[in-house]
Amino acid sequence: MLDRIIGIVALASLLAFFAVLPAFVRSLDLVAVLAITAALAGYDFYVSLFRRNNRDR
User: Fold this and answer.
1) Whether the predicted model's global pTM rises above the 0.85 cut
2) Which CB contacts under 8 angstroms, 24+ apart, belong to 46-49?
3) Rounded Cα distance, 36 and 49, in Å
4) Are 6 and 45 in contact (CB under 8 A)?
């Protein structure tokens, strides 16, 4: 359970950092890269912490 809490805090911190960047650097390319990176980080977070392992089946 603690690993999920730490993961949620880490993902929230990453997304908060990503939210600040476009405010200071106005670039459509940067926003696209940040969106793709956030999507990949969210998917990795889901797979690592909430998806069942193959061993559990």
Assistant:
1) no
2) 48/7, 49/3, 49/4, 49/7
3) 20
4) no
